[in-house]
Amino acid sequence: MSTQTVLRYNGSAERHFPRQNSLSEKSGPQPLKNIGNVADFTRPQKNKYTYEVVEGIAKWLQERTSIKPKIGIICGTGLGGLTDEITDKEEFPYTDIPLFPSSTVAGHAGKLVFGRLEDKEVICCSGRFHYYEGYNNYQVTLSIRVMKILGVTHLVMSNAAGGLPSDYNVGDIMILKDHINFIGMAGGSPLRGPNDERWGERFISTTHIYNKEMREQAKKAAEECGLGPYLKEGVYCMVGGPNFETVAECRMLKLLGGDAVGMSTVAESLVAAHSGITVFAFSLITNMCCMEYDDQSPPNHEEHLMIGKQRTALIQAWVRNLVGKIQLNQA
Ligand SMILES: O=P(O)(O)O[C@H]1O[C@H](CO)[C@@H](O)[C@H]1O
Ligand code: HPA
């Protein structure tokens, strides 16, 4: 008989996320009677995925692959081609992985790819989850915590984004130096809720969230790959989407110091940093944000996919070169 972990959703959320004491279990006064089986509203909401559930998902994967990844890669919109570079591939469609969300956005294939890149063992998410798809931030960042348990120490993330400064061009690559987290600043952090110290501490600093050493390595790699002329470094603004921004919103983002705007990445960065993973992220500028009302080129998703395809070869070579430079024992 197989000894593999069986971790299937059995229709009962309580199996994985046990309900805390319900009102009816309390010994004190119970002013509300016969209101059914309700959660305890006097306690904060628990993280949706407990450490044990994430461990279970990681174990399910470990039982099916011999790759022990130290480097995690997340492919942004239209950048799924990054997986082409990986050798000795073992692929897991998200729909096969217990408790995993599924990709719903065009340009996000929806599979986990294990394999080798520049002789290093990697795991690559070909397709990420976005808040606007209806997923909560725990679902959006589940893959990062699975990576952590699998042994990942370094994360390379990509995204498609709109450019804000006038000296940016479509096709440029912006290394994230910092971010502005509009959802997070309004209370929607993926670290909200009781903190499980096994992931990391309650209050984390984000001053150096995008690792300087990796940014420098990436700049060197860009020069070596001929990507130098297209390379920028700046501040990524995370908005909820799925609508693109109004002219007034774009102007505000620029005024606040933003260089690019997109609908992803930041929640993943925070969860990775929380658990001590070294984070590197970059944006492919797929469109320029509309700063004037008579602008005749509003952003559209199909165009973003096309720009992604056009830049794929160069970005693949760059990411491969960067992965080659990562010192796996660096903090
Ligand atoms: O951030 P990624 O996943 O690259 O996707 C970006 O591209 C989509 C819009 O075209 C949005 O989902 C935006 O966030
Ligand atoms: O202009 C944009 N805004 C938000 N998200 C995006 N993703 C690609 N381009 C954009």
Explain this structure.
The chain starts with 12 loop residues before the first helix and ends in a 6-residue tail after the last helix. It has a five-stranded mixed beta barrel with strand order 5-8-7-6-9, surrounded by four helices. The radius of gyration is 21 Å and the shape is globular. The chain is of the alpha/beta class and 331 residues long. The chain has nine helices and nine strands. Residues 76-77, 105, 128, 130, 159-160, 241, 262-265, 301, 304 line the site of 1-O-phosphono-alpha-D-ribofuranose.
Helix coverage percent: 25-40%
Secondary structure category: alpha/beta
In DSSP terms (H or I, runs of 4 or more residues), the helix count works out at 9
Classify the beta-strand content into a percent band: 15-25%
Mean pLDDT: 89
* Lateral strand order in the biggest sheet: 5-8-7-6-9
Rg of Cα set: 21 Å
Bound ligands, each once? 1-O-phosphono-alpha-D-ribofuranose, hypoxanthine
Task: Report the major sheet.
Answer: 5 strands, mixed, barrel
Spans of at least 5 consecutive residues with low confidence: 9-26
Question: How many strand elements?
Answer: 9
SSE order in H/E notation?
Answer: HHEEEEHHEEHHEHEHEH
Report how far the terminal alpha carbons are from each other: 42 Å
Shape: globular
